[in-house]
Amino acid sequence: MNTIKYFVIHCSATRSNMTYTSLQLDRDHRARGFRSAGYHFYIRRNGDTEALRPTHEPGAHARGYNDCSIGICYEGGLDAMARPADTRTPEQKDALRRLLLELRVKFPLAKVIGHRDLSFDRNQDGHISPDEWMKACPCFDAHEEYSRL
Ligand SMILES: [Zn+2]
What we know:
By secondary structure, this protein is α/β, with parallel strands linked by helices. The protein has helices spanning 22-31, 90-106, 142-146; strands at 6-11, 14-15, 41-43, 49-51, 69-74, 77-78, 111-114. Helices cover 21% and strands 17% of the residues. The chain is globular, with a radius of gyration of 14 Å. The structure holds zinc ion. GO terms for molecular function: calcium ion binding; N-acetylmuramoyl-L-alanine amidase activity. Residues 120-143 form the EF-hand domain.
């Protein structure tokens, strides 16, 4: 539990006009060969937060970082035209903040980052810039928003 260095925020890459339940998520992740849904927590548009994996078990959500991170996914991340967008509802923002505050108690040293912040630093300047993102997930600047929780 002391090895947790990051809370990695993801989006489910679901269009803003569609729903994606944790059951669908679980099924899709199993289809990709995971034991079960790869995230530890899933936050629905209405703010419901579902625990999908115990935090003492590694997730399957960030290649190379699963042993040292907790994965948190929110339902959304694409606009109605399937373009990357911060589609978090006020309820999701509340729920995410509450969840991070709870997790912070258990893992005081962990940093909040977005999945895209784990992209490869191609020009080695110590900063992951937008042209280096392997994907847009989670479609907002999680580090900027939650670094001072
Ligand atoms: Zn992601």
